[in-house]
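Data card: per-record layout.
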Amino acid sequence: MLDPLSLAVGGGLVGVGWVCGRFGHRRRAQFGSKLRARCGCGHDLALHDRAAGTCHAQISRKGTHGLREWVGCNCRRYNGPTPLEEMFASPILPPES
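The structure for this 97-residue chain is written out next.
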């Protein structure tokens, strides 16, 4: 009816798969950090003003008496990857003329 050798090989494969899955190295997918275009200051394109180029993000730094304070980012121009919509099509609205 049932071949004992086949059952032992199948059980061994299941055991090896469980051990590899339990103790093997796992790579975790970090979709948020890999897919976002970031400037040299570490902020997204959405936080930069397209016309002036300044960054509107707030960063925390050590202030007086060891307290944390929020100050504006010092970035003056977005230097990250160019968005695809700027490469292939010019903005339609608002009209420039």
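Known properties of this structure: Residues 37-80 form one domain. Residues 83 and 89 are 10 Å apart (CA to CA).

See the next section for split statistics.
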